[in-house]
Structure formats: C-alpha cells, structure tokens
Amino acid sequence: MSDQNTPYLKNTWYVAALSTELDKDLLSRVLLDTKIVFYRKEDGTPVALLDRCPHRFAPLSMGKQCGNDVVCPYHGLAFNSEGNCTSNPHGNKRIPTKAKVPSFPLMEKHGFIWIWMGDEVADENQLPDYTTLDTGHDNAIAYTYMKWPCHYELIIDNVMDLSHVDHLHGEIITTRGQLSPQIPKLEENAGQLAASWEWKQTPPMLIFNDFLPEPGKEASHRVTVTWAKPANIQLSIGCSQGNQPITFESEESVSQYDLHVCTPESENSTHYFFVTRRNHHVEDAEYNQIKIQNMHAAFELEDGPILNAVEEAMETPDFLSLDPVLISSDAAPVRVRRTLKALIEEEHKTKLTLAS
Ligand code: FES
Ligand SMILES: [Fe+2]
C-alpha cells in the first residue's frame, strides 16, 4: 500500500472505473500503488476492498462473489462489503477478530465510480459539479478508458496546455496555428483553475465543420480547460458563426463538454478516463464510436509517445526541479503543478501533526 511518503493527494476523489466496467465479475485494479478489488452488491451498490486476504494474502479478486460478499479463493474466508469476515469454514467456524479487510468509500456519479483513499471522512461535496454530463440524448455521450505508462501529471500538463495542438496533432483538430500566438486567459475560482483560448479559423475545426450553418466558412472558436484537484480536467470546446454565443447550452453553437480524469496507478502509470458529451448530431450512436476512436488515435499516436519520451528524458517526476525553460503557454500547467504540490505537502503536514 502507499504510505505518507508516496506523492499522492489522498483525501480526495479519484475515478476508479467507468460505471460500465463493474458488471458481474470482480475487477482488480491498482490505484495509488494499492491493489483493490471492486464488485457490485446485489442491489448494484459498488464495493471496493483491499485486494489482499488477511489470512495468507491471496488476492480476493481471484475468488468469487457470493451474494453481497467476496469469498477468498485459497481457504474460503468470506468478507462483506465493509470488509468484515462473515464466514470461516474451518474448525469451530469462529471468526478471528483480526479477519478484516480495509474498505474504501465509493460514489457513483456521471458514469464513473469515484474512490476516496484517504484517512479523512469522504466528503461528497468535494467533487465539482459535472452535471452537464447527465442531461441530454443517451447517444450524445461516449466514454473510454486507457492505461498509459507515464506519470499522471504529464497528462495533466498536456491537457492544460493546448498550444501543443498546433504542433503535435494532425488535421482533424487543427486550429491552423491559432493557439500558440495567444496567451491563454487564466481564471481561478474556488480552487479550480481555468485556461481559455478564443480564435477564428477558416475552415472551422473539422470535428465541428459539418454541423455549422455554413461549413467551410470562418467560425469563432473557444476552448476552456478547467482543472480541479486532484486530476480532473473539464474541457469545453465549441464554435459558432455570425457572432453567436459559444456555449454548450446554446443551440447556435456546435460544442462539446468533456472530462479527462487521470488516476495514478503508480509513479509511472496512469489510468486515463475520458467522457465527451456533444450538443449536436445527438442521435447518432455510431458517431460516438468515431469520437472515441479519434480520442484514442490522437492520444496513442501523438500525445502518448511524446509524453513517454519526455518522461524518459526527465529522469524524475519533479518537472520543476529541472529548472525548465518556461513559455507563455506554461502558465496554467505550472500553476496546477504548484497547487497540487502544496496540497500534497499540506496533507502530509496535517498527518504528521496528528500522529505526533
Ligand atoms: S488466504 Fe484467504 S482464506 Fe487463506
Ligand atoms: Fe493532445
């Protein structure tokens, strides 16, 4: 398990899985260096337990679910959703007092299973409001997940500095070089940091072009990325013609509302969850598949390989310790790094104070 020296914020919500990943089978996943088994109770409530039997430490995920309990594959001890042993098939069948597995608070929201891995009481109010994901046509929302072998903060940096789109990405999301000359507008509010870019381009971004009133003609564009601790980035992007407002709610603009969430598996591996909801072409479920394929192609062929090469060249996860050259587009990601570092240090300090 991770300890207080591991560099993760603990008293916060991370995405553990897509809701759709938890079905009939036990799911084993390492989060923050901790191996966890997930399943659903008979009423559908999700459960997370440490994936290690307290007897001889067999992974519970190799066992089976029996009603609302999970049964260890090795000698058959059973544990309930709170991690308490409910059955010992051996000897006098007495349940040893130490037979308990740590359990973790979960919350199911916006199509994700969120997990709280810190010692403090889980606080549902800490999750930002992403309810825009919950309303709209069922076919206008698409989810995906991939595991990527790099430090999670490199993925946060990548999404918080979208100027790389001008240089790294191909035709489908090109801005015709319009982001790099701009200094992104930053806004900080209630611990969240937003960076926005606004520009005009002809033709419009290809992901939106066909849905505009005049395809191929100049359109105004806006993108905003909003970071919230620990590793949630809400990305809103859209465009319009004829000075119409660019908001997800406006029928005059062609927009999408995305959430990128990174959960560290370990120092060099990240669970990358992604959802996109659009306000146009809402009934086409097949178009969802195209959106998700495009996300995978862009990340796996363009962003991901650069992040791996960067990580190898850095030889440390501490980007700022390398005294990097910083340019105007770094303002948001650097501020996020500093904020996250301060939050982690604060959490460690509190823990040490309580322990002394
Ligand atoms: S290791 Fe689990 S019951 Fe023995
Ligand atoms: Fe990218």
From TrEMBL:
Q: Name one GO molecular function term.
A: dioxygenase activity
List residues of the Vanillate O-demethylase oxygenase-like C-terminal catalytic domain.
148-346
InterPro entries attached here?
Cholesterol_7-desaturase (IPR050584), Rieske_2Fe-2S (IPR017941), Rieske_2Fe-2S_sf (IPR036922), VanA_C_cat (IPR044043)
Domain Rieske: from-to ranges: 12-101
Which branch of life, at top level?
Bacteria
Q: Which Gene3D superfamilies match?
A: Naphthalene 1,2-dioxygenase Alpha Subunit, Chain A, domain 1 (3.90.380.10), Rieske [2Fe-2S] iron-sulphur domain (2.102.10.10)
Q: Provide the alphabetized UniProt keywords.
A: 2Fe-2S, Dioxygenase, Iron, Iron-sulfur, Metal-binding, Oxidoreductase
Entry annotated with the keyword Iron:
yes
Xref: Pfam families: Rieske, VanA_C
Protein name per its UniProtKB record: Aromatic ring-hydroxylating dioxygenase subunit alpha
